[in-house]
Amino acid sequence: MKIILASDHAAFSEKQELVKYLSLHHEVVDVGTHNSDSTHYPEWAKKLVEMVKSEHTVGILLCGSGIGVSMVANRYAGIRAALCRDEDDAKMSRLHNDANVLCMSGRKNSIEQIKKMTDTFLSTEFEGGRHQQRIDQFNNLGE
Q1: List 9, 84, 96, 103, catalytic entry
Q2: Whole-prediction pTM value?
Q3: Which of 39, 52, 94, 115 is most buried, judging by how many CB atoms fall within 10 Å of its CB?
Q4: Band of the pLDDT at 143, cuts 50, 70, 90?
Q5: CATH superfamily of 2-136
Q6: What's the CA gap between 131 and 96, in Å, rounded?
Q7: What are the pLDDT digits (tens) for 125-137?
């Protein structure tokens, strides 16, 4: 599976660990940031979203809180970015919401929690049915 990753400086080290972890079993594309210098999370979220849309795959965004990147990503039609704090959030974001971008906090979650949420997100299939009807009501709003 191809997975697109991005973060700002606040979650750079967590992203680097996640890239190494995921590269063992997946094709990983790291769109940045590529160092821990202060940077702006919207530019990285935008790069990730554009690639997720063009490649028809999933993405993982990290920033200090996870909030900023999720707000940016959700501005785009067809993107369903889920800010997840635990494995249950990651599971439900896929099961009921067919999330295609997982957003997490580099400051509030340990790397082990981040790996577990990622594994859950990637291994959970969308349930469809009534949940698809709900997604259809909002999926093409925005940009």
Answers
A1: 96
A2: 0.95
A3: 52
A4: low
A5: Sugar-phosphate isomerase, RpiB/LacA/LacB (3.40.1400.10)
A6: 6
A7: 999 888 888 888 8
